[in-house]
């Protein structure tokens, strides 16, 4: 809900200059502030040492008088009261880039673009609008291996056709195994990895050029780069304003590790077999509340399992409480891995947003936005992690959630 007295809000299309957003792979943050042209350093080491961005402001600061928002945190329509009248700090959850965007994404980002334009152009606020790109994720890992296995299979079959000879029985069996793995409804990482290994071994045994193994640490970045580029192309075609800052999980692993270490020091997480879990019992014992956004969903095993990811098998029995969730996952065969104090692993899903938002926006945030499906557990966990990191009881003041695009009663989704 947006209002300012009885006045109508007129939205004007904005033509964006080609250089208005910076999305090169070389730096951790690409920043273009809408009014002050502030740019974050691409040097991750320098960025880790500096305080949150503090721009210079005009004297005629904006006012929030008459602006009301439906706050998902309280489920009430409330007057908007910014932390700082001069600059609104807004974090929005971006896409997980393992596939092409769809019109459900368009519905989500257009909705928030309208709110953002009203706050910028009608109310006159300056806004630091930060969007993340999730480029380390179970679905991304699975898609990377699937794509590579398809390429391996095509390469072997092309050699067989070029040789115009009878198929080797072992090669044919390996090709059938690869095809079966690709055709499985339930994508299974060990099955994909083993099918690729068998195909390579059979090809080598038959005197063919064996296809290269999947270097997942490098291959996943090619996949995510392409879908990230497509996403921003789609947003530009829809005339959605670009974010002021874009952060990627793969660029933020050192910061995420440091963020988890601070949560450790505050006593709100624990290590188990190389993984790190958020301790919901310790969080409650510390006087902090878990379940602010939707208390009815706390303990929903299906939602929690979906958020932990498709590659979470083998971690059973490591949590102290059923409601605990992973901050750092130890990596298994076929998964990308980074060194950490707990061993080789990768970030959990929720921790990325807490760490990246905190890096640019600090210990207090005005707005956090995303689709309604992120309310629990993602935004709940994101908020809990930040409060555990800062040892405080309030990190985000307003949550905004957009509804889903429904077609014949079914949610529009990539999954």
Q: How does this model look, in words?
A:
The protein has 415 residues and is of the alpha/beta class. The protein is 39% helix and 15% strand. It contains 11 helices and 14 strands. It has helices spanning 44-49, 103-122, 138-163, 169-183, 189-205, 216-237, 253-265, 280-285, 301-308, 349-361, 375-390; strands at residues 29-31, 68-71, 76-79, 88-92, 127-133, 245-248, 269-272, 275-278, 325-330, 345-347, 365-371, 396-402, 406-407, 410-411. The strands form 4 sheets. Strands 1-6-5-4-11-12 form a 6-stranded mixed β-sheet, with helices on both faces. Strands 7-8-9-10 form a 4-stranded antiparallel β-sheet. It has a two-stranded antiparallel sheet with strand order 2-3. The longest helix is centred in the middle third of the chain and has 26 residues, at 138-163. The chain is globular and about 75 Å long.
Please describe the structure with a list of short key phrases separated by commas or semicolons.
415 residues, alpha/beta, six-stranded mixed β-sheet, four-stranded antiparallel β-sheet, 15% strand
List the helices and strands and how they pair.
Blueprint: E1 29-31, H1 44-49, E2 68-71, E3 76-79, E4 88-92, H2 103-122, E5 127-133, H3 138-163, H4 169-183, H5 189-205, H6 216-237, E6 245-248, H7 253-265, E7 269-272, E8 275-278, H8 280-285, H9 301-308, E9 325-330, E10 345-347, H10 349-361, E11 365-371, H11 375-390, E12 396-402, E13 406-407, E14 410-411
Parallel strand pairs: 4-5, 4-11, 5-6, 11-12
Antiparallel strand pairs: 1-6, 2-3, 7-8, 8-9, 9-10, 13-14
Helix pairs in contact: 3-4, 3-5, 3-6, 4-5, 7-10, 7-11, 10-11
